[in-house]
Structures are given as structure tokens and as C-alpha cells.
Amino acid sequence: MAVFTAAFFAASLLHFKVPPTSVHLLFHGLLGVVLGRRALVALPVGLALQAALLGHGGLSTLGVNASVFGLAALAAHHAYRALAGTGWSTPFATGACAAALGVALSAVAVMGLLWSVGEGFRLVAQYALIAHLPILGVEAVVTGFTVEFLRRVRPALLAGGCS
Questions:
Q1: What pLDDT does 162 receive?
Q2: pLDDT at residue 54 above 90?
Q3: Biggest alpha carbon distance in the chain?
Q4: CA-CA distance, 56 to 80, in Å (whole number)?
Q5: Which residues are CB-contacts of 147 (< 8 A; sequence separation ≥ 6)?
Q6: How confident is the model at residue 80 (pLDDT cuts 50, 70, 90)?
Q7: For residue 71, is it left (φ>0), alpha (ψ between -120 and 50) or beta?
Q8: pLDDT-based confidence at residue 159 (cuts at 50, 70, 90)
Q9: In this structure, how many other beta carbons lie within 10 angstroms of the beta carbon of residue 127?
Q10: Whole-number pLDDT of residue 161
């Protein structure tokens, strides 16, 4: 759990300015696939470290971010379990789909939250959703390769021990 929390923290250091907002890698879908429900503990720890050490997000948004990313990680976990149980796809595709779902859900949730704040944030909300599309692709590919690798060398590390 600590290793994947550290990976989440380190990945979030890579952020990209997309005016009027910015996006950064999270790999909360990967945390959901590997840690399952334990991602709900790892994510707030990583987010608190980001806020305390780097000023990313801040303590005032810790609860919202933990909820948004935690629910997306749980969705990725359940999607992975459902897809892995069918045997219709490769481990790469299963992991990639789960990660893409996690990023898509969190991007839509962030857009919805920004949209609900008021008229001044609606344009930012639209840009934030669009800006997450490249992040979705990167995280899907990296998670797919990670799941493929873990399936070969340590299948018990995957959420729920699916192998």
C-alpha cells in the first residue's frame, strides 16, 4: 500500500498547464486495480502529503479530492474485477479500460463540481474535462502495461488477487 501511495504522490508531481487550468497524472485507477478498497486509505494520505509538502490542492479541498478520486478508484476496481472475470480481454486491455474509466469519472466529477460553483467557473469546467483526455490515454496505457507485468510476476498483487 505504501509503495502505490508513493507512486500516486510521485506521479502527481508531473502537472501540465492547460490555460485556464492545469492537469496532472494521478494513477488512481491503478490504485483501484491493485489496492481495491484500500485505495480509499492510500489516496487521502497521498493527497495530504501533496497539500502539506507541495501546496497542491490544499487542505481545504482534501475531502472533495479524496472523495472524487476514491470513488473513481473504486469504480476502476470493480470494472477491473468484472472484466478480469470474463476472460474476454488481455490483462493490458482490462487494466487500461479500468484506468480510463477512473480518469473519465473523476474528470466528469471535477467538471460537475466546477460547473455547480457558478457562472464564472463554467468555462474552466469545460476546459478541465477536455484537458483530461490526454491524461486518460497516458494513464490507461501505463496501467495496462503495469497490470500485464503484475499478472505475469505477482498476480496476487492485483485487486482481490485476481489472476
A1: 43
A2: no
A3: 50
A4: 29
A5: 33, 80, 91, 92, 94, 95, 96, 98, 158
A6: very high
A7: alpha
A8: low
A9: 17
A10: 43
Three-class secondary structure of residue 1 per DSSP: coil
Taking Cα atoms as reference points, which of 158, 77, 159, 72 lies closest to residue 110? 72
CB 14 within 8 A of CB 124: no
Walk me through the domains of the chain, giving residue ranges and CATH numbers. Answer: 2-161 (1.10.1760.20)
Angle between the 122-153 and 28-35 helix axes, to the nearest 10 degrees? 40
Helix extents (H) in 12-162: 28-35, 39-49, 62-86, 91-117, 122-153
Let me know the angle formed at the C-alpha of 103 by 101 and 107, rounded to the nearest 5 degrees: 115
CA 82 to chain centre: 18
C-alpha cell, 138: 497516458
Average pLDDT score over residue span 127-146: 91
pTM of the full structure: 0.88
Cβ atoms of 80 and 98 closer than 8 Å: yes
How far apart are alpha carbons 104 and 110 in whole angstroms?
10
Residues 6+ apart with CB under 8 A from 118: none
